[in-house]
Q: What sequence folds into this?
C-alpha cells in the first residue's frame, strides 16, 4: 500500500491472529534470518522490531551499518542487549516505584511528530501505565532526544551522527505501530512515514553533493 | 536439584528472564538454539522452551525434544507457538486475547484450579497464573490437567502418557512478559515455578 520500499524485519515466530504483527503488512516483510541473503538496494528504510535474534544481528551487524552508510534510514523499537545497532547503548530498565516513573514527555513539545497528540496516551492505555517505554538506551553525543522519562533519560532519539544514514531508536514500540485507532497517537504513523521519506531524500541529496 | 537447560533464541525477553539472577541460579545452561547439536540436551533433566519461538527454530528442536522426552526428560513448553503441533497429541485452540478483562470489577478470567493438591501449588497460587491467555489446549487423554478455562480446555497440563518422560505444557507466557518488563503476576509465577521445577515433585 505504497510502503513496499520500506523493509519490515521480523520473524514468523507468532501467528497473525495475535494481532501483534498486523502492522507489518503495509511494508515489504523480511524474516531476519534471511537478511544476509537479501538484496537491500530497493529499500529506503528498514524497520526492525524488538523480537529479532540479537546474537544473529550481532554476527551480521555490518549489513545494518552498510545499509545506513548508503544514506538510508533504520527505525528500531525494542530492548538492545548486544551492540549491533550503530550508536545505541544497551537498554537500561527504569526502576519503578510508582506510575509516575513511566511518564513520557516530549523533549521538544513542538516537534512535528507530536503536535496534537495527547501525550498521556503514550504512557497510559485504558488507564494502565508503562505502554510506551519502560527504560531507555543511552544515546550518542549529538543525537536528538525526542521523548524522555522523568529523569531526562531519552526513550526515543534521532541519530544522524553515528553513520551516513539516520537512525530512529526507541526503547519501546516504534511510533509506527503505536496506539489504538481511536487514540490521538494514531496520527503519528503517517507523520513518521512522511519523515522517513523526507529523511531519505535529504540523505540521498547529500550523498549526490559529495 | 534437577539440571535445567533453558533454550534461547537471541531475543531480548528470553535474555532478561534467563539471566535474572534469581532464576539463573536454577538454570545449568542457556542454550542458543541456532548453535544446538544433536547431543546438546544430553545430561539435562529439564528443558525449558520459550514461547513465540521462530518456526524454523522450533522445527529444528522438535526431534531433539521428542528424543529428550523419550529418554525420560521433562520438557516445559510455554505458549503461544506458531508451530501449533509442537507439543504431542494436543490440539491448540486460538482465542482472541482480552488483555483488559481485569479492568472490569465484574469480570474474572475464568480459570479453575483442578488439582489444588498438586505440588506445584505449594510453590505458586492460582492468582500467580492470572494475566491473560492466547488460547486453550485440548490435551491428550490421560494428561493431568492442573488449570482449565472453565470447562472449555486446559491452561496448564502435565502429560506423562505421550512419552517415557514428561511434557509440561501451558498457555501461559511468563518468560515473555517478565522479560519485557511488565505484568507483575508473571514474576510471582516464575518465582515459584523455577524452584518447583528444580526441586519439587513433578
A:
Amino acid at each position: 500500500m505504497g510502503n513496499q520500499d520500506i523493509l519490515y524485519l521480523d520473524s514468523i515466530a507468532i501467528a497473525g491472529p495475535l494481532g501483534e504483527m498486523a502492522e507489518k503488512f503495509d511494508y515489504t516483510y523480511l524474516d531476519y534470518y534471511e537478511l544476509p541473503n537479501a538484496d537491500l538496494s530497493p529499500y529506503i528504510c528498514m524497520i526492525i522490531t524488538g523480537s529479532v535474534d540479537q546474537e544473529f544481528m550481532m554476527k551480521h551487524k555490518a549489513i545494518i551499518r552498510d545499509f545506513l552508510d548508503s544514506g538510508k534510514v533504520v527505525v528500531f523499537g525494542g530492548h538492545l542487549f548486544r551492540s549491533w545497532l550503530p550508536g545505541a547503548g544497551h537498554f537500561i530498565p527504569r526502576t519503578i516505584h510508582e506510575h509516575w516513573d513511566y511518564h513520557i514527555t516530549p523533549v521538544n513539545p513542538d516537534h512535528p511528530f507530536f503536535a496534537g497528540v495527547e501525550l498521556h496516551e503514550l504512557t497510559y492505555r485504558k488507564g494502565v501505565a508503562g505502554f510506551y517505554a519502560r527504560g531507555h538506551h543511552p544515546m550518542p553525543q549529538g543525537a536528538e532526544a525526542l521523548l524522555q522519562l522523568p529523569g531526562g533519560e531519552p526513550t526515543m532519539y534521532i541519530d544522524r551522527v553515528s553513520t551516513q544514514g539516520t537512525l530512529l531508536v526507541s526503547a519501546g514500540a516504534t511510533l509506527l505501530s503505536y496506539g489504538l485507532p481511536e487514540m490521538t497517537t494514531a496520527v503519528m504513523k503517517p507523520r513518521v512515514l512522511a519523515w522517513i521519506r523526507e529523511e531519505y531524500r535529504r540523505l540521498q541529496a547529500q550523498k549526490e553533493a559529495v | 536439584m534437577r539440571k535445567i537447560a533453558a533454550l534461547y533464541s537471541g531475543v531480548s525477553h528470553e535474555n532478561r528472564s534467563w539471566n535474572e539472577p534469581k532464576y539463573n541460579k536454577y538454570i545449568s545452561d542457556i542454550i542458543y538454539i541456532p548453535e544446538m547439536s544433536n547431543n546438546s540436551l544430553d545430561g539435562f533433566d529439564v528443558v525449558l522452551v520459550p514461547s513465540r519461538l521462530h518456526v524454523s527454530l522450533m522445527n529444528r528442536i522438535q526431534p531433539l525434544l521428542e528424543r529428550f522426552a523419550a529418554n525420560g526428560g521433562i520438557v516445559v513448553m510455554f505458549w503461544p507457538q506458531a508451530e501449533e503441533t509442537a507439543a504431542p497429541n494436543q490440539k491448540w485452540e486460538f482465542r482472541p486475547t482480552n488483555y483488559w478483562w481485569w479492568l472490569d470489577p465484574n469480570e474474572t478470567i475464568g480459570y479453575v484450579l483442578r488439582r489444588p493438591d498438586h505440588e506445584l501449588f505449594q510453590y505458586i497460587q492460582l492468582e500467580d497464573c492470572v494475566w491473560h491467555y492466547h488460547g486453550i489446549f485440548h490435551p491428550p487423554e490421560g494428561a493431568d490437567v492442573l488449570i482449565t478455562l472453565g470447562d472449555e480446555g486446559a491452561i496448564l497440563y502435565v502429560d506423562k502418557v505421550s512419552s517415557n518422560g514428561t511434557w509440561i505444557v501451558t498457555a501461559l507466557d511468563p518468560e515473555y512478559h517478565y522479560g519485557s518488563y511488565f505484568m507483575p503476576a508473571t514474576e510471582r509465577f516464575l518465582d515459584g515455578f523455577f524452584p518447583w521445577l528444580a526441586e519439587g515433585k513433578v
Notes: Chain B touches chain A through 26 residues (CB under 8 Å).
